[in-house]
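Milestone 3.1: sequence recovery, worked example.
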């Protein structure tokens, strides 16, 4: 998987790219792009269910596209001054195709996340659900004012992702 992170330069600007292998890494599929690409899709996480469903979680940063050096500088200096939200997508066919992305955060998050950066964002799956967690600086789920970093959690039934 490729996507812009604190140290990673994305293979496809503004998008998450996922490739899969059926032969222990000797060959790889053509990358499947997740997200719209109009805004940076950043800090991706991937996981697999016991039955082989792949899940991806990532943040959409509401800004123009960033160069990797500028993004890295903004993250390290705590100056990531753009709002974002958390999205997920799943693949039921070993990564050959992915569902349309589904936003799991209930609101756009305040600018930045300097104290938490991406230490909290992840996804996990079982046979029935995708579980997502991410850092967020809202004062509360209903108050968009910035506050201390909190951990938000979503549980999404796999049928919510159209095949």
């Amino acid at each position: 998987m490729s996507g812009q992170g604190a140290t990673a330069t994305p293979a496809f600007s503004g998008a998450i790219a996922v490739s899969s292998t059926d032969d222990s890494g000797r060959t790889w599929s053509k990358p499947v792009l997740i997200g719209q690409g109009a805004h940076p899709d950043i800090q991706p996480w991937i996981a697999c269910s016991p039955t082989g469903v792949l899940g991806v979680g990532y943040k959409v940063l509401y800004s123009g596209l960033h160069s990797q050096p500028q993004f890295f500088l903004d993250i390290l200096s705590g100056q990531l001054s753009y709002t974002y939200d958390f999205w997920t997508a799943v693949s039921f066919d070993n990564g050959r195709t992915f569902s349309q992305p589904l936003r799991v955060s209930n609101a756009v998050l305040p600018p930045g996340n300097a104290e938490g950066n991406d230490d909290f964002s992840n996804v996990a799956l079982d046979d029935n659900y995708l579980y997502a967690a991410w850092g967020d600086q809202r004062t509360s789920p209903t108050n968009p004012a910035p506050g201390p970093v909190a951990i938000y959690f979503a549980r999404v039934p796999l049928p919510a992702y159209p095949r």
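The first helix runs from residue 68 to 77. The chain has a mean pLDDT of 83.
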